[in-house]
Structure formats: C-alpha cells, structure tokens
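Researcher: I'm comparing several assemblies side by side, and this is the next one on my list. It has 391 residues spread over two chains. Same procedure as the others: predict the full complex and return the structure.
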Amino acid sequence: MRRTVSLLMLVPLLGATQTLSAALGITLMLGAVLGAFAICMSPLRDRLTGTRTLLASLTLAATLTSCADIVAQRWFLPWQQASALYIGLLALQCVALEYSGLFREPIAAIFKRCTLFAALMLLIGGLREILGHGSLGRGLSASWQGLVVFPEGLHLFTLVPGAFVLTGVLLAARQAWTRRHSVIKETHRP
Amino acid sequence: MNRSASVVTVVLLALVGVSATYVLQRSSAPQIASEQRLLDSRKLLDVLPSGYYDNQPLEQPLTLIDSSLRHSTLSGGYRATRSGQTVAVLLRSRSEGYAGTLELLIAIDANGRVLGVKTLEQRETPGLGGHIGEWPNSWLQAFIGKSRTEPTDAGWALKKDQGQFDQIAGATITSRAAVNAIHDALRYFDEHRALLLGNGQ
C-alpha cells in the first residue's frame, strides 16, 4: 500500500512542477485540500467502519477537490488550465493517503512528512525552471519577470521525462551523501 | 454507532458535498466565464502591438461574404479600432497543412500590410512543421510589413517555388500552406477593403 501511495505522489511531483510557480500552486492546493480533508475526516473516522469510511472519504475528497478546482478557476485560471489534470487527481491522493494510515500517525510526523514533500516539490520545480527555461520565479508576480540565470534552457527539463531524470539524479546524490556519512570505515581483513 | 446512523451520516455528507459544490459553481460561473474571455482575447490579440487599438475586437465579429478562398477558408474576422478609426482587421484563416487543419490569425492594417500572424491551431509534425505553433515566431515575423503588391503575386511563394520566402526547415508543405493562406487573406482584404474597414475610414 505504501508503495502505491509513493507512486501516486510521484505523479504531481513529476507532472505539475514545470516551473517554481506551478510547483508552488499545486503544493499549496495539495496542502489546503489535505488539511481540510484531515480535519473533516477526524470525527468521522472513529464512527464509521469499512465501506462506509471509504464512501465518506471519497465524497469528502471529491467535494474538497472540486471546490478547490472552482476556486482556482475563478482566481488563477491560466495556472488552473495548465495543471487541471493534477488538480483532479488530488482527490485520489487524499483517499489513498487515508487508507495508507498517514492520518493515524502522530501529528508531528504527519507535519514533518508534508513539509518534506512540499520542499521536494519546490526544489524540483525550481531546478526544472532553472534548467529548462533558464530563469527562476517567472509568473510568481505580475510585476516581476523572474530571475534570469541563463538566456536559454534545456528543453528536456520542461518535459516530464526530464523531471524523471532530475528526480533520479537527486535520489542518487542523496544516496551518495548518506552513504559517505554513514559507512563504517572498512576494516582490513586478515 | 449503529448501522442506520452511519448510513445517514454518509448520505448527509454526500448531500452537503453536492450542494456546496453546486452553490460554489453557480456563484463563480460568471467570473470564470469573464476570466476565460479575457484569457482568450489576450491569446488572440497579442498578434497586435499593445496600445495599437482601444476597442474590444472580439466583441464585434465581422460577417464575411465569399469566405471560401483559393487555398484557404476564412472562418471569421474582427475589427480593431482606435478612437473610432479602423486600424486593423484580424482574419481567421483555415487551410490544410501537412497533417491537418492549420488555423492562422492574420492581422492586416488599414493600408493592407501584414501586422502580424499567429498560429491558432496546428497538427504539424512536432520538431519540423510544428515550429509554426511557437509564439513568438521568427518565421512568421518575416511576413510583417508585406502586402499584396509587395512582393508581387509571383513573389508570394517559397524560394523553392521561385518566390521570395524562406521555408521552415523540413516542412515545405506546412510553409507553403501558410504562405498561401496569408496571400489569400491579403487578396481578400484588397477585394473587400471597404466592407472590412467599415464606415470609420
């Protein structure tokens, strides 16, 4: 189950992070929907059982996601049109996270995980924008054109496969880092 | 909690969810529609330089007669005015590209010169003819300032066809379709100048 959930979280991580502003948008929306979902589900969780919990969480997730989608259409239409697919998927993530038991963990652990995921989203969004478009922060505000790092970027990183490659490189870097700091000095064998 | 109470809870939750979504949708529909219109008009009208017009061209579509041209069909037109004077006419032209319909928006000023060309829809090969869909587009910028008489009819073709325009690399059919569509639109403008410019001129 945990594996399925991680795979499901990979979808917005790779798909909805073309730029820092897109990543920020989907992260904020995920945070708002998940937060509201967790709050609304907490009184229901103990009272319902089995299929009825599933039904309740489905209805709740669908309601919250459609409301968030409408709000996004009303105030952030250009961004909404670019990320509509991933906004619709938020409902599925809510239900999957509910079933993986994330919300039954202590609140500090939930908070830590969500913060880590949000940081990862923003990191990937920022790196993809720098590598793919050569700029950072474009579209965050109407008056600021963003920080230009290179005049032109690598087109690959604006596409989903580029995000996949980038995620792989980040994972490898993390592996190398943790291994270097945790490996016990090899002892010579006689 | 017993069975019926939990069923009631779920039903209640569903009702609240549906009605909340419905109310929110109903109350934001007008704003969303106006946002959408603004976005559409910005997408169409960035073919004109900003500050070139002061009306809402999309609010006043032109009715076109005989819109079936030699190589293309005109599917619509708009008039951009500045203080009552027509400064530009926008023509939507549809023609057959390499892989499907190619829809261009061609802006022509009151003297019959091209002000800008923008691709609205295309299904050309990505990486070759697909470059025509990019915006801003350096290849389409080559048409700015051209008119029906300058170059002459023979010049309105690709260099490969003894004309004077470069083609998009590897996309002869797409380029030819675009050149012909723009030439068609200019010819149409010349023939229907009075109707298109209206009484403001």
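Model: For your comparison table: Chain B is about 35% helix and 20% strand.
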